[in-house]
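Action item from last week, closing it out:
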Amino acid sequence: MRFPLTSTARTQSYQQAAGFRSAAALAKEVSVTFIESDGNEVQATGEEGTNLMELAHENDVDLEGACEGACACSTCHVILDDKIFDDLPEPTDEENDMLDLAFGLTDTSRLGCQVLLTPEMEGMRIKLPSATRNFYVDGAKPAHH
């Protein structure tokens, strides 16, 4: 006896037949190195699509992120390699506005909350500036949720 498929199973069956795969099946692990302001290097591995701020927090990297990724501060400011920077989509106007407030801004500065891991970033080295500007609570450090 053959049982009818549930709507979820039917959708998955159709997707598999059409060649679709779930996002989880397609996600790749990407390894990068964060270079903290004191020169300490922290190796971190995350799934493709994770933003750099979240990856830093998951690996106890000293990257603040006062607005928790809402693109409303500059405390997750990172400095990227030229090649990776050039390959990224252009920053939004909102990100550029926040970067204008960042301490130690460079030509390859971005907000970590706005940069998503891609396989092309494998082995990338990410520098953290020597200081941040937190207008809310100077010296605050992120805590894991």
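Closing note: The chain has five helices and five strands.
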